[in-house]
Structures are given as structure tokens and as C-alpha cells.
Design brief:
Its EC number is 2.7.13.3. The protein has 463 residues and is an alpha+beta fold. Helices cover 68% and strands 10% of the residues. Among the domains are: 116 residues, no CATH class; 164 residues, Histidine kinase-like ATPase, C-terminal domain (Heat Shock Protein 90), CATH 3.30.565.10. The protein starts with a helix and ends in a 7-residue tail after the last strand.
Length: 463
């Protein structure tokens, strides 16, 4: 029986080891298994069929020779070239020996010693090179293990470096966060201090303003009352005495009475305006006695919207305007001073109703005056939770040239006698100083005006 099938199995096994080291075993595993099956099939065929000895011999040698020279034409098997180089002489010598022995026995008998020496020499050659190859393979394996150990060490060092960098980043982030918290706390303390100082200033200014307003109130009432009484007396004088005067002085006396009546009417008109300003000053300077408490913003806005509407309807039966509301049902309650916030909303609603009424008077039919109110939760640029209240109307709007002045005390865009100029000023102070929020306006003249109130949730500001 020929040894070539077993040698072929040995060579295939060596190829398997090389391919495994090169990471190519998965690709060639199927073909290596086929090689095993072929070698086993040749061996079984040779054992089972005696008359097929020559065919088995030829197949064994050809299969073995094909396996041995495969590294020279398969790129992935190039690492097995040294083993192939060692076995090719034996594969050729064995093939020649068996061919001569089976088909040319006389020649084989005459040169038996030479042929056997050739086969023996090729076998020694193969064994020697196999030992050398094995030593080299072990050296390569040791080198590979050493390289793997170095790579593993480098990987562990890289992992340690990554962990260290991660810890440094985490620590840096923690320090940064603590710094930001300290800065935010310092900012809040400064803001609270500024609010306290502003509160004291406003309280002192309010007391001074209230004192002045009270002092002005009495002489102002005297002027208003006596101007009204004087007008009534002049009317009685005109009715009772004027007709009894001679004709030559009657006309002049009538003109004088009319002039005095007009003067007193102007005095009374401006006196009432001054009275409204004084009352506004008193209201503006009034110290807030209310405390912050959980407040339902939706209910408060709805209550004061209807209060403003029905109050204006009571004064002017012809007044009418549409109302639209969109309240966030998830708004909940926030800490606020409901009385002060109600004053702000009432003032904004009154202004909006006044604006749409004026536009209705100008445009007449075809225009639908509408005031819209909505609430929702928003986030400030710093990420703080805030409640936003928007009051919008489709009225006359606010001229762009006066936008910077609308929060100034005593500034008003309404005609003389119809506004004190203290409503928006008071509202601005209540929102910004009393609640630590913002009061902004967006407008287009002749189209709309939109006031936006933003109040921090849970913010405790000084009043």
C-alpha cells in the first residue's frame, strides 16, 4: 500500500495550521475537508480492490504531488512553500520509482540500488527541511506570541489611557458643573441683592410719590369741584340775568359768560386728567401687601379677561369684541402674587379692547375686533421652566417710533384725557421686579399688538 495518501493528509494538516495562523482557515476549510475525503477514498479504494493497485498507485502519487505543489499556484497557501519545497523531490522520486517498478521491472531491477538511493536521499532531504521548517515555524510562533503579547500590553495601556482620559474628562466636567453652579448661585445672589435694593428704592420712591400725590389730591379736588360749580353758576347767570340786561351790553355779557364757561370747562377737563394721573401715581406707588402663593394662571387670565370685557360693556353699551382663549391644561399652579398679576392682565386687556374699538370706529363694518389670550409652558435660553402668557389683538398696533417709550411713566399713545401713561409702566415693574420675569411686545402698526409675559416657575422675587 502506498504512503502517499497519508503524507497528503499530513501536508493538508500542515496547510490547515498555516491558514489558521494567517486567519484564512474559514475561507479554505471546506476545500481542506474535501482533500481529506479524497485521501481517505484513495486509501479505501486501494484496500478494497486488489486489481486496482496500479490505478490506486497513480492516483496516490498524482494527488500527493498536486497537494505538494499547490502552494506554488494558490496565493493563500504561500506560507507552506517551504514544506512543499521539501516534499516535491520525494513526490517525484516516489512516482518514478513506482512507475519503473510496475511498468519497467527489468530496468528497475538493474538500477534498483540507484533508485532506492534516490528515494532515500529525497526522503532525507524532506525530513531535514521539515525539521528546519519546524524550527523556523516555532521561532515564528514565538515571535508572533511575543508580538501578540506586546500588542496586548499596548492594548491594555491604551485602555488604561482611555480610562484615565475618561476619568479626567469626568472630573473636569464635574468641576465645570460645580463652577457653573457656583456662578449661577452667585448670579442669583446678585440678582436677589439687586431686587432687594430696587425694592427698597421703589418702596422709598413709592412713599414719596404717595405723599406728593395725597398733597396734590386736595387742591386738585378743590379746583375740579369749584370749576364744576362755577360752570353751573354761569349757566344760572346766563338763564336768569342775561335776558334782563340792556341790549347794548347783553351781547358782550353773553360772550364773556361763554368764554368763562369754556375756560372753566378746560380747567375741569385738565383737572380730571390730573386727577386720573394722581390716582395712577397712588396705584403705581402702592406697596404690594400680597404674598406669593400657588396661583392658577389659566383661571386668573380668564377671570380678568371677562372682568375687563364686562367692565367696558358697562361703560359703553355699543362696545363689542370677540375673545379667543387657548389655555394649556397642564400648566398647573405657580408661585405668584395674584392681585398684582391680575392688575397687569387687566391693564393689557383694557389696552387691547381699546385698540380694537378704535380700529372698529375707523374701519366700520367688515372688521371683526378680536382679543386672543393663550398660556403655555416654555423654556428660557438658560433652560429654566417658565410660564408664558400672550395677549394679542388685531387692533391699531403701536407705532415703531414709540416702542422704546411705552414702559416710561406718564407716556401714553391715547388721546388727552383717556390715558395716564402709568398702566404699562406699572405692569412692567410688577412683572420684572415683582416676579423676576419679562414683558415683551411685538407689533405692526395698523395690524396687531402682542404682549408676551414670561414668569419663572417657582421664582421667588422681592416686591
Amino acid at each position: 500500500m502506498s504512503l502517499e495518501p497519508f503524507l497528503a493528509v499530513f501536508v493538508i494538516t500542515q496547510f490547515r495550521r498555516h491558514l489558521k495562523n494567517d486567519g484564512l482557515l474559514t475561507k479554505w476549510n471546506k476545500y481542506l475537508n474535501i482533500g481529506y475525503y479524497i485521501a481517505i477514498a484513495i486509501f479505501v479504494f486501494g484496500v478494497s480492490f486488489d486489481h486496482g493497485e496500479r490505478l490506486t498507485m497513480i492516483l496516490s502519487h498524482l494527488f500527493f504531488l498536486g497537494v505538494v505543489i499547490s502552494p506554488y499556484y494558490i496565493e493563500d497557501l504561500k506560507s507552506g512553500k517551504q514544506l512543499a519545497f521539501a516534499l516535491i523531490p520525494y513526490a517525484i522520486a516516489g512516482l518514478i520509482k513506482d512507475l519503473l517498478e510496475k511498468w519497467f521491472p527489468n530496468f528497475y531491477d538493474n538500477h534498483d540500488n540507484l533508485i532506492q538511493s534516490l528515494v532515500m536521499f529525497s526522503l532525507i532531504w524532506a525530513f531535514s527541511l521539515w525539521l528546519i521548517s519546524r524550527k523556523q515555524t516555532k521561532a515564528l510562533e514565538n515571535e508572533r506570541k511575543q508580538r501578540f503579547a506586546e500588542q496586548e500590553q499596548n492594548r491594555m495601556m491604551a485602555a488604561m489611557k482611555v480610562n484615565l482620559e475618561s476619568e479626567v474628562r469626568e472630573r473636569t466636567a464635574e468641576l465645570t458643573r460645580q463652577t457653573e453652579e457656583l456662578q449661577q448661585t452667585l448670579s442669583e445672589l446678585k440678582s436677589t441683592q439687586a431686587q432687594l435694593i430696587q425694592s427698597e428704592k421703589m418702596a422709598s420712591l413709592g412713599e414719596l410719590t404717595a405723599g406728593i400725590a395725597h398733597e396734590i389730591q386736595n387742591p386738585l379736588n378743590f379746583v375740579n369741584n369749584f370749576s364744576e360749580v362755577s360752570i353751573e353758576l354761569l349757566e344760572e347767570l346766563k338763564d336768569e340775568v342775561l335776558d334782563k340786561l340792556p341790549d347794548d351790553v347783553k351781547e358782550d355779557a353773553g360772550d364773556i359768560i361763554n368764554d368763562i364757561t369754556q375756560n372753566l370747562s378746560k380747567i375741569n377737563q385738565h383737572g380730571k386728567r390730573a386727577d386720573a394721573i394722581v390716582k395712577g401715581m397712588l396705584q403705581h406707588s402702592r406697596a404690594t401687601t400680597g404674598k406669593k402663593e400657588p396661583t392658577d394662571i389659566n383661571a386668573l387670565a380668564d377671570e380678568y379677561l371677562r372682568l375687563s370685557y364686562h367692565g367696558l360693556r358697562a361703560k359703553d353699551k355699543s362696545f363689542n369684541a370677540g375673545m379667543k382663549t387657548s389655555f394649556d391644561p397642564d400648566l398647573g399652579k405657580i408661585e405668584a402674587i395674584p392681585q398684582d398679576l391680575g392688575r397687569v392682565l387687566l391693564n393689557l386687556f383694557n389696552n387691547s379692547f381699546y385698540s380694537v374699538t378704535e380700529k372698529k370706529r375707523i374701519l366700520g363694518e367688515g372688521y371683526e375686533p378680536t382679543v386672543t389670550v393663550n398660556t403655555k409652558k416654555v423654556k428660557s435660553p438658560s433652560g429654566a421652566n417658565m410660564v408664558q402668557i400672550t395677549v394679542e389683538d388685531n387692533g391699531t398696533g403701536i407705532p415703531q417710533k414709540v416702542l422704546d417709550k411705552i414702559y416710561q411713566p406718564f407716556f401714553t399713545t391715547k388721546p388727552t384725557g383717556q390715558g395716564t401713561g402709568l398702566g404699562l409702566s406699572m405692569s412692567y415693574d410688577i412683572i420684572t421686579k415683582g416676579h423676576g420675569g419679562e414683558l415683551n411686545v411685538e407689533t405692526a402698526e395698523g395690524q396687531f399688538a402682542r404682549f408676551v409675559i414670561c414668569i419663572p416657575v417657582g421664582n421667588v422675587a422681592q416686591s
